[in-house]
């Protein structure tokens, strides 16, 4: 019988982006700027929606919840990373890692579900305009938001449990220069693969279909050819790209039982993942500026937010 050395994991060492100490101030400033832009932009949307009675509509109710989810989504990892850069620490506790995974997944899934709810809101506004306020009443608006929170919480709990199992069964190996990476995946149990495939496929389809519905509704209805819906359709397109950078490849890997990704493929995936994430944050900031102009300069709104400026901001 072979004996194996099993070690219980209490702390996890984060490799970080760069070991170069001269780059640390630059990285700190870059991520701090990105985080502040995201938080301030989303906060402006929430404050505008609360303070202006004209914005107490289903559309802005969902948008304010989406902004809250985006603030929370970025706050699950960026502040911790900024602190680690400042104190030159690369350690995160096992409990801290699982907690971070839970909330990161919670607000990421919530973001996708809220975009789907907003797509339904647009569908009702376009197809049933005379009955819109009857269908999208206050009680009904609160229900899909509540369901989105509960669904996201349950899924993130499942994700955290899977991650916990993965970390406990993680094997550490010493790798030298590599042309390929071996993806460990969530579970080695083949019986769990169909379940994981179904969960991620359903989430991906819900996200893509919801966002595409928003884009198609904005393009097809001339009444939605406004700066607000122009920015929202671009945001939906970016969210589709954001999820498409990782999930389809993961689904293919589950089906083909492959865990290999090439070095170039990994770098490309990271590039587009960060690109879509940054665009998502910047577009939310642009949308907050659009709301500011609509509230503070209503008479000059169409002059200021002309098509040329809208395209330039995007």
UniProtKB/TrEMBL annotation:
InterPro entries, alphabetically? GPCR_Rhodpsn, GPCR_Rhodpsn_7TM, Olfact_rcpt
Which Pfam families does this entry report, sorted A to Z?
7tm_1
List the membrane topology term(s): Multi-pass membrane protein
Q: Which UniProt keywords apply?
A: G-protein coupled receptor, Membrane, Receptor, Transducer, Transmembrane, Transmembrane helix
Localization terms from the record: Membrane
Record-level Gene Ontology MF annotations: G protein-coupled receptor activity; olfactory receptor activity
**What residue stretches are annotated with the G-protein coupled receptors family 1 profile domain?**
41-157, 210-314
Query: Which PROSITE patterns does the entry link to?
Result: G_PROTEIN_RECEP_F1_2
Annotated membrane-spanning segments are 26-47, 98-120, 132-158, 195-219, 270-289
- GO cellular-component term (any): membrane
Give the matching PANTHER family.
Answer: OLFACTORY RECEPTOR
What is the name of this protein?
Olfactory receptor 19
> What is the native source organism of this protein?
Heterocephalus glaber
């Amino acid at each position: 019988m072979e004996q194996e050395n099993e070690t219980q994991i209490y702390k996890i060492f984060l490799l970080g982006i760069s070991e170069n100490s001269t780059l640390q101030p630059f990285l700190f400033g870059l991520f701090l700027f990105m985080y502040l832009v995201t938080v301030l932009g989303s906060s402006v949307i929430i404050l505008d929606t609360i303070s202006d009675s004209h914005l107490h509509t289903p559309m802005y109710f969902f948008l304010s919840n989406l902004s809250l989810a985006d603030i929370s989504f970025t706050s699950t990892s960026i502040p911790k990373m900024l602190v680690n850069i400042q104190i030159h620490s690369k350690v995160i506790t096992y409990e801290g890692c699982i907690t971070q995974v839970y909330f990161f997944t919670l607000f990421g899934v919530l973001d996708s579900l809220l975009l789907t709810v907003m797509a339904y809101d647009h569908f009702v506004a376009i197809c049933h305009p005379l009955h819109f306020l009857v269908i999208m009443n206050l009680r009904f608006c609160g229900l899909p938001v509540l369901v989105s929170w509960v669904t996201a919480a349950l899924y993130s709990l499942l994700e955290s449990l899977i991650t916990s199992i993965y970390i406990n069964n993680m094997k550490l190996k010493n790798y030298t220069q590599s042309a390929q990476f071996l993806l460990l995946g969530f579970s080695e149990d083949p019986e769990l693969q169909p379940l994981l495939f179904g969960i991620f496929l359903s989430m991906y389809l819900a996200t893509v279909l919801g966002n595409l519905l928003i884009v198609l509704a904005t393009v097809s209805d001339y009444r939605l050819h406004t700066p607000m819906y122009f920015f929202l359709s671009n945001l939906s397109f970016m969210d589709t790209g954001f999820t498409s950078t990782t999930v389809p490849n993961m689904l293919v890997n589950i089906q083909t039982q492959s865990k290999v990704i090439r070095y170039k493929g990994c770098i490309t995936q990271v590039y587009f993942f960060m690109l879509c994430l940054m665009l998502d944050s910047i577009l939310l900031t642009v949308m907050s500026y659009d709301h500011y102009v609509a509230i503070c300069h209503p008479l000059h709104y169409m002059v200021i937010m002309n098509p040329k400026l809208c395209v330039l901001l995007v």
